[in-house]
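FW: tagging you since you asked about this chain on Friday. Here's the raw sequence from the shared folder, copied in full. Didn't touch anything.
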Amino acid sequence: MPYGTFRLFPHLKKRFGQHFLTDRSILRRIVEFAHIPPEDTVLEIGPGSGALTRELARAARHVIAIEIDGDLIPSLRAAMPGNVEIVEGDALEMEWPPGAFHVLGNLPYNVATPLLKRFIEHRARIPDVTVMVQKEVAERMMAEPSTHEYGPFSVLVQYYANVNYGFTVYPGAFKPRPKVDSAVIRLEWRPDVPSAPRFTDFVQQAFASRRKKLANNLLSMFPSLGREEMLRRIISTGVSASARPEELSVAEFLRVYNQFR
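HL: got it, structure written out here
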């Protein structure tokens, strides 16, 4: 039996996207990559079988693990050391504990993106985020302009954070095996970046028709301006009038956005 407590939890639930990581060497690599100060608190999303939770308990003063699957709670509470607190709830909706905490976890594929957006919203209390996600999601977070992966999610994450790619985790490290590769990434917030929900909404709308030119998408957003004025504002930022949204860097999007505030 691989490391972990998987044998205690034979009834996996597809609706929760459960894939339990059982390779202890990878678990240790995740904790090492997170650089957790020993006096700090960790918030773990989705402890599942508790394998990563145990490693975190060795590294941190206090671990708070949020698990949505109520069937796992009794066994998790019975198996964990004293510095681990198991909390039943949905990390997307529940109120998080007070104080500052590092976020770690193996994020379920079906809710990874909304969870990452919530981490950004609460970044004042979260020094950093180290999580495993579907490799495709990691690639979108790190994507550069003019690539297939680059889109509004890339701009959102890169506006607020530096994304560090740790390593790839292959399906054989999980029970049951997922169909895709995973990746461990670490988010470190950019200093002095103000919250800008209007900017990220602007970017989302600018990507509404990905293959259209940016000017055409913006004209749909601001029809009263007219094409001539629209092109004048875009060109004033140093962006080509024929540019498509996926060609703009985060800094270029900011310059364009400031023309329409």
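FW: Strands lie at 20-21, 41-45, 62-67, 84-88, 102-106, 128-134, 161-169, 174-175, 182-189.
HL: agreed, and The two ends are 58 Å apart (CA to CA).
FW: great, closing this out.
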